[in-house]
Write a structure and sequence with these properties.
By secondary structure, the chain is an all-alpha fold. Helices cover about 45% and strands about 0% of the residues. The radius of gyration is 12 Å and the shape is globular. The two termini are about 15 Å apart.
């Protein structure tokens, strides 16, 4: 199931996660930011979401969430499903 940003993905981020990352220019609570189709030098498309996923899995450093236990596989699967299963990036 692809799920939605509002009901499935956003609740995974704590208020502390959102506050901390907003200060770094990462808008975890913004559907527009997380679903932006723009790419970068690392990802051809949807770079914002893929970088968040990379930091949550530890593929990118520092690993998120900082100062808290890593996400469970179920949490990671929810985010990944939202990003990859059709229809992708649902609000």
């Amino acid at each position: 199931m692809a799920g939605s940003f509002k009901s499935d993905v956003l609740p995974l981020f704590t208020p502390m996660d959102i506050s901390h990352m907003t200060g770094m220019g990462v808008q975890l609570d913004s559907y527009k930011y997380m679903s932006s189709p723009a790419g970068d030098s690392m990802y051809a498309a949807y770079a914002n979401a893929w970088h968040v996923y990379g930091h949550l899995t530890g593929l990118e450093q520092p690993q998120m969430p900082m100062g808290a236990p890593p996400w469970t596989q179920a949490q990671l699967n929810t985010l990944l499903s939202w990003m990859t299963q059709q229809p992708t990036f649902q609000p």
